[in-house]
Amino acid sequence: MAFVTLKDMGSDFHRLERFDGGYFVRWQRKMHFLLVTVKVYYVIVNPRPPEPGENEEESVAKTRERLRWDQDDEICRGHILNGMSNTLFDAYHTVKTAKELWNQLESRYITEDATSKRFIVSKFFDYKMVDGRSVMEQFNEIKSILDRYSQHKLALDEFIVVTSIIDKLPPSWKNFRNSLKHRKEDINLDELGTHLRIEEDLRKEEKSKSEGVSKILAVEEGESSKKNSRSNHFLSKLSKRKVNVKLRKTMKMKWNLGGANE
């Protein structure tokens, strides 16, 4: 298994050509790949976890989730800024969030790219979800692409969008994909997102239970192995003791016989 070290990631960002206003789409693709690699791109597509209500008690897990999002957002924003020329850094360093920074760059520079519309269209239809990443995170990435359709006044039928996204589900979701495709009722994009979120939560829960059972079985197997080891050790000592007793009896008989002959 290959592990990505902080040194390797820093080296990758260092090698990324700094964006100076030209070839934005190419730079954005490379930046997207690096942000996904360091696992902070999700702050651009996933909203910040909400603050608790005035009289609402918040769990420790929810608090940690929001604090982690804030930290990753700052890291993500910093990486984007560090990938820009000094002139553009000075122009954009006051933007507060990574999503806002990303959107501002897109709204200004992607319209200046002659192939931007073709790029957006192909990016949606070429997008394929993969195993090993959150399906909801990838779903939100697709929605982000579709938001750019609106920016460019590109229209796409929602039924085609939903059907296409279902076809993009990763290989391990094959059965769920087929169940969605054979539904009698059509669903819209928001409903699809709800179905995907529920399914992913169920899969996480099943995985957690499976891992818990595996740990219990491993512990029981270890305890059983220890018991067998102790039992075998006891039987071995008992067997040696019997042999020693038998040997002493034999020696005693020989000694008695020898004394009688004398």
Strand and helix layout:
Layout: H1 6-15, H2 24-37, H3 42-45, H4 60-82, H5 86-92, H6 98-109, H7 116-126, H8 135-151, H9 158-167, H10 174-181, H11 189-261
N-to-C CA distance: 80 Å
Shape: elongated
Low-pLDDT stretches: 1-9
How many domains? The number is: 1
| Rg for CA atoms | 32 Å
Instruction: Please trace the helix and strand order, writing H or E for each element.
Output: HHHHHHHHHHH
Can you offer a commentary on this structure?
The protein is mainly alpha-helical and 262 residues long. It has one domain (6-50, 61-217). Helices cover 72% and strands 0% of the residues. It has helices at 6-15, 24-37, 42-45, 60-82, 86-92, 98-109, 116-126, 135-151, 158-167, 174-181, 189-261. Helix 4 (60-82) packs parallel to helix 6. It is elongated. The protein starts with 5 loop residues before the first helix and ends with a helix. Pfam families: Retrotran_gag_2.
